[in-house]
Amino acid sequence: MTESLPPCPQCSSAYTYEMGALLVCPECGHEWSLASGDASDGAHAERVIKDSVGNVLADGDTVTVVKTLKVKGSPSGIKAGTKVRNIRLIEDGVDGHDIDCKVDGFGAMQLKSSVVKKA
């Protein structure tokens, strides 16, 4: 058995194994190629997050909501066209949410990058 396999870049599990040309994590199910695992240190792999039209997002960007979103506890929700300033990208959001932000009138919340467009 090879003890030199890198840990999983998503959950840092040490129990990775080879499956053909890929490395696989049995704990979270993440698969990646050995070449990309060697290129990064595994602890801080760079992830690219894109908006609904394919623009790359970065921390501090201003985005516009592209469709009306329902918000639990609010009768109106967030309307399409609402600008959100100073976003922060996160990796461990709940249910696919990868943007942490403050929306005027609603407070702190998480959004999915698929419902915003870079302003």
Question: Could you explain how this protein is built, in words?
Answer:
InterPro entries: YjdM (IPR004624), YjdM_C (IPR013988), YjdM_N (IPR013987). Residues 4-33 form the Protein YjdM N-terminal domain. Pfam families: YjdM, Zn_Ribbon_YjdM. The protein folds into two domains: 1-40, N-terminal domain of TfIIb (Single Sheet), CATH 2.20.25.10; 62-118, SH3 type barrels. It contains one helix and nine strands. It has one helix at 34-39, and strands spanning 17-19, 22-24, 31-33, 63-65, 83-84, 88-89, 99-103, 107-111, 116-118. The strands form three sheets. A three-stranded antiparallel β-sheet has the order 1-2-3. A hairpin with a 2-residue loop joins strand 1 (17-19) and strand 2.
In short:
By secondary structure, this protein is mostly beta strands. It has one helix and nine strands.
Number of strands: 9
Q: Mean pLDDT score, rounded?
A: 85
Intertermini distance: 51 Å
What is the structural class? mainly beta
CATH superfamily of the largest domain: SH3 Domains
Unreliable segments of 5+ consecutive residues:
37-44
Number of domains: 2
Helix content, binned percent: under 10%
**CATH secondary-structure class of the largest domain:** Mainly Beta
Major beta sheet summary: 3 strands, antiparallel
Q: In the CATH hierarchy, what is the architecture of the largest domain at level 2?
A: Roll
Q: SSE order, as H and E?
A: EEEHEEEEEE
H/I helix tally: 1
Rg = 18 Å
The fraction of residues assigned to DSSP E strands is: 15-25%
Shape: elongated
Please name the CATH topology of the largest domain.
SH3 type barrels
Strand order of the largest sheet: 1-2-3
Protein name: Alkylphosphonate utilization protein
Pfam family, one: Zn_Ribbon_YjdM
Domain Protein YjdM N-terminal: 4-33
Family: Belongs to the YjdM family.
